[in-house]
Amino acid sequence: MERLALEMQALDVIPFPALLIDKDYQVVFMNKHAKELYTQSGQTCYQISHSFSEPCHFHKDHPCPLKEIMERGLKEYSVLHKHETKKREEYHLVKTVYMPEYDLFLELHIPLEELLSAFDTARLRPELLINSGPLAFFLWERKEGWPVRDASKSVYDLTGYTVEEFLNGKIDYASLIHPEDLERVSQEVATYTNTNKDFWTHQPYRIITKDGKVKWVLDHTVSVKDNQGNIVGYYGYVMDISEFYEKERLFRLLAENNPNGVILYDFQEDKIVYANRVFLRMLKYQEEEVIGKSVLAFVDPKDLERAKRLIERVKAGFKKHAEAILRLTTKTGKVKWFKLLGHVVICKNKEHSLITLMDITREKERERRLFYLATTDKLTKLLNRHAGIKMFENLLYQAQRYGVPFSLLILDIDDFKKINDELGHLAGDIALCKVARAIKKGTRKNDIAIRWGGEEFLLLLPHTADPLPIGEKIRKLINAISIDGYGFLSVSIGATTYQEGDTIDSMVQRADSALYSAKRKGKNQVEVAEAVLKDP
Asked: Does the domain made of 376-528 have the CATH classification 3.30.70.270?
């Protein structure tokens, strides 16, 4: 136990939070950085880090490293978690190591966004680094091959080589670097050295371990300078990121082989950070024309406001699976329909929306065609009776609820039976089509023309309290239609306006009565039904 007490004291010099945890998830020790970071509301690791009431593995996207180590017999395990801290939520790389001599687990919580800036080499010394931690420390000379002058014991876990093998010159650091990456890393060192940089972070590169395995590493290098300010060596903090790098490679492999479009969207900065080839092909863009652009730049103006509301919901904290149907515009100006499926993922320590886009343009066109067939009279191309009744119901509702006036015309072709009997049904069909075109020509954009049945048509006039002018206009247009072998057509029209308490039946009956009144008066005229006086 005396040795454990010393180990606990040593944990206080580690520059990030460290916790000792037993198999029941009870925290038996927190170093000073952990105490400064967390509220300590609770006795278990999941209470302290997440405010959970049960272990992490009961929660989605929170695999428990202790559970993984115990169930799989591992020595260590790393996961990426979002932790609740005193100031805000932060993403941490949780590195967990089992210490069998104490039957305890050592957890290191490394803030990812601060990882590259957390090391101040003016105050840190190699002996303060924990040798079982996720970072390997190197001190390199500024010489060919970058000989290692000092290193932490954890370099063995990373490379398979011991500290002694590095220090006695059996291998220098350059020999570790994969041949395909060595030239790039060398160029980066030369560039930053020549500009006298204090520190830099290399692009991820590969190393080859003693047993021939390839690992991806993140290397944060700090310059060592003499009294004159000249760079004479380098401190290096090297971290194995193979697991995360391979996950990114796997993501890209899966995304590029997805038959649908896939984009990764940074909704906080409003920019696309990744788009697969299918997405680019569907919208006819090159990659450089998409990456860094707002996703709204590709949304059709008709759906722009709805797309903005969806994005605001995600920003406001809606993290569940989201689904939407939107129109996007291709580079050539063509509008396509897409079904979008999105959910929030963590990429490079930041929340993004992973969006899958399925092109449903053909389905929408079929849907539109089926709707057209279901609502349109095949011969005249006007609305059929079933669709017309739906529109009639909508106008009645607006009139009853908001007092919006509307009128109704019923048109009947005079002596239509004579055309069919003398010239045949084909001539009758021609007459019906010509009347339908005249009705369309004589009505306004918002007026609703319906083939009510046979030679009878119904016309709904929204926001209209006096139907007579429109009725007369249509009557004259139809009266100018000539049918070969017959002569000019005429129609009788009955008209009425909505009155309080009206129904479809009452309005149609009133307009029908006016229509037959027009027939009795000699046809080819408009008869407006008189208003029914209500009892006081």
From this structure: yes
Q: What does DSSP say about strands 335-347 and 322-329: parallel, antiparallel, or unpaired?
A: antiparallel
Same fold, 126-245 and 376-528: no
Q: How far apart are CA 122 and CA 202, in angstroms?
A: 21
Do 218 and 243 meet the contact criterion of CB atoms below 8 Å apart? no
446, exposed or middle or buried, with CB in 10 Å at 0-12, 13-18, 19+? exposed
With beta carbons less than 8 A apart as the criterion, state whether 495 and 511 touch. yes
**Averaged confidence pLDDT in the chain:** 86
Residue 91 identity (one-letter amino acid): Y
Token pair, residue 118, equals 């957390």
CATH class of 126-245: alpha beta
Token digits for 467?
């139907």
**Are 279 and 262 spatial neighbours (Cβ–Cβ below 8 Å)?**
yes
CATH superfamily of 2-114: PAS domain (3.30.450.20)
- Sort 425 into a burial class: Cβ within 10 Å, 0-12 / 13-18 / 19+: exposed
Spatial CA neighbour of 300 closest among 273, 267, 335, 275: 335
For the chain, how far is it from start to end, CA to CA, in angstroms? 100
Task: Count how many residues are written for the chain.
Answer: 536
Residue 70 burial (CB count, 10 A): 14
Reported as a single tens digit per residue, the pLDDT across 112-139 is 665 544 444 333 444 444 444 557 888 8
Instruction: Note the pTM of the prediction, 2 decimals.
Output: 0.46
Query: What number does CATH give the domain 258-363?
Result: 3.30.450.20
491, 435 in Cβ contact below 8 A?
yes
Q: Point out which residues pair with 85 in neighbouring strands.
A: none
Q: In 201-337, which residue ranges form alpha helices assigned H by DSSP?
A: 242-256, 277-283, 304-315
Dihedral through CA 406, CA 407, CA 410, CA 411, nearest 10?
Answer: -110
pLDDT in tens, 164-207: 999 888 999 999 999 999 999 999 999 999 998 888 888 888 99
Which tokens hold the place of 60? 């989605």
Task: State the Cα–Cα distance between residues 464 and 474, nearest whole angstrom.
Answer: 15
What is the helix, strand, coil percentage profile of the chain, to 5? 40, 30, 35
Rg over CA atoms, the chain? 39
Between CA 223 and CA 237 the distance in angstroms is 12
Cα–Cα distance, 512 to 506 (Å, whole number):
10
Boundaries of every domain in the chain = 2-114, 126-245, 258-363, 376-528
Q: Where in 330-414 does DSSP place strands (E)? A: 335-347, 350-359, 406-413
Asked if residue 535 has pLDDT above 70, the reply is no
The widest CA-to-CA distance across the chain, in whole angstroms, is 120
Contact by Cβ (8 Å): 460, 406: yes
CA atoms of 435 and 477, how far apart (whole Å): 9
